[in-house]
Write a structure and sequence with these properties.
alpha/beta
Length: 302
Amino acid sequence: MGEELVIDAHIHTYPRPEIGLQAMQGAGQSGCTGTIEEIISVLQKNRIVKAVMVNVTPVVDMLDAAVAKLPKDIPGTELARQVDRIKGEMIARMIRRNAWTCAVAREHPELVPFFSVDPLMDGEAMIREIDERVQDGGRGLKLHPSNCRFFPNDRRLWPAYRRCEEIGLPVINHAGIFGGDIQYAEPKHFAEVLAAFPQLTMVLAHMGRPYWEQVFDLVEQYPNVCLDTSTAICGSPSYAAPPADEAVKLIRRIGVDRVMFGTDWPWFDPGRDLEFLRTLDLSEGERRAILGENAVRILKLE
């Protein structure tokens, strides 16, 4: 029996420790801050061959914070001009983060770069960013509805979905619990997208937890939806994830071939999550599929 192929399909990375600490806001349980040096060490320690960086930029939160600092008595026309200027600056920051993610992956081939767009961009700008990041080595698109405050079926995103479908680029979308306003990320909001783009590979992060019935409805209707286990099936002792027997039932009802191992590092510890997943009452074939083989197929990894 050979060594298992392990791929972490959901991590976040940050250029500096203070940025990662700010993003986690005290919720991190891995003891890490999200730097590249840390994740390379974590991967080596746990024999994880690849990790997918699903970095995202909270454009709307940054826009709101910057607009709030403008003078209160600014005239309406000037306010609109300033808001447009700030919006452009925040989108530029997102693009720089996308470029950083791709650059890091070129230096560290064990890291797989996903990048983000935001519906505050117009359709042409989103398509241009997708095309440029793919040329830059980007392997997929990451969207975060609850953090960035848009619904996944927002028609402003249609050009991005269409472009990803055309070029076979997978999309990982935050779904369910955590990370901002949860109403935006209920799995039911993905149905319209999955129906409109039947050839688009859509991954619901966190398995859409806790909206299990909505998830079951989606997987029964749409063969192009997959899921990752980050924060939904994990070994953190202080986190109320489903117990082992329930986790196995969830995986099998969803379909083993649709589930990928993911951890949401640096929030959670990949080693601890791996240990927990390996205790589940799964066959060797099921475990191998979830730990790495599915990610190779779903995310088109080499």
